[in-house]
Specification:
CATH architecture of the largest domain: 3-Layer(aba) Sandwich
Oligomer: single chain
Number of strands: 9
Helix content: 40-55%
Radius of gyration: 21 Å
CATH topology of the largest domain: Rossmann fold
Strand order of the largest sheet: 5-4-3-6-7-9-8
Number of domains: 2
Amino acid sequence: MGKIAKRYIRKLLDKAEIELDGNLPWDIKVHNEKFYDWVLKNGSIGLGESYMDGWWDCKELDKFFERVLRAELDRNVVSLPLILNFIGSKVFNLQKKSRAFIIGERHYDIGNNLYKSMLDKGMNYSCGYWKNAKNLNEAQEAKLDLICRKLKLKKGMKVLDIGCGWGGFAKYAAEKYKVNVVGITVSKQQLEFGKKLCRGLPVQLRLQDYRSLNEKFDAIVSIGMFEHVGYKNYRTFMKVVYKCLKDGGLFLLHTIGGNVSVKTTNPWTQKYIFPNSMLPSIKQIGKSIENLFVMEDWHNFSIYYYKTLMAWHNNFNKNWDKLKSGYDERFFRMWNYYLLSSAGSFLSRKNQLWQIVLSKSGVSGGYNSIR
């Protein structure tokens, strides 16, 4: 089957103007002939695993994935892992409360040193705002300030951060806007780091699932967490936010989004990076907020995620010598594949980055959009 598989994959790549063993940055160099059968049989898992195992290389993976996704090649290989992934997401609620901490254990708890070496000084693991920023630190601080201004934070307000990460937003909002912050996470290592980061500030961080919340807040924010909620739980999530938000308060949702409604993520990402994750669509978010919230503002700055991911990629590789004693070469290739394939997805405009401002009954006189 090898020759047939090779011809088929060559034809697929031709659609994206990618050559096997070509000389352009997005062309791929195949080192192991098993690559063709493996990819044809296993789809995205086969492509990712064969890269992790060194079966092929590419000078600029981000540009490779931009071309693959623009040509929609991902729709041309229907593999068994993809079918099983889809069936599992239909039959089971993979993000139910009893499974809420899986993502923390398998992604966010793999080492604070890894994330410290990759992220900005404030440990923000979400898209920066590069409008006037010259580097990653400036872009992340600009993002945090943008959120605070969109939420109209005032001194003394009580703010909830659903999916608080390592405490970057909580620290910034408490220091700069003098608010009190409650943050929740499902990651033990994030919680440990965040408590140290926010020591001495009016910040309370907890290991807690969002479905256990039952308090009132003046404002609520969720940054880069909604991607783990799952389509079966979007409405539940919004009902929790509605219950916890005081009348007159604002909720800001910062999330990656997709152009089409899906019920799962690609099998490689599911297996190696973000278990039980998926990207919401405009339609799915709209349905989840119907008869609960007024949509005040919808801001898309997805191209900034490309710049953010490339900055993370640069930091990761620059600091690999300090990290590699705790990880192997396969992890190194896996993490580069994750960062660069994600970057390509934003470059291709297949993935979006949205900040959505919601109110319970509409801002009196209208909401002034902030950019």
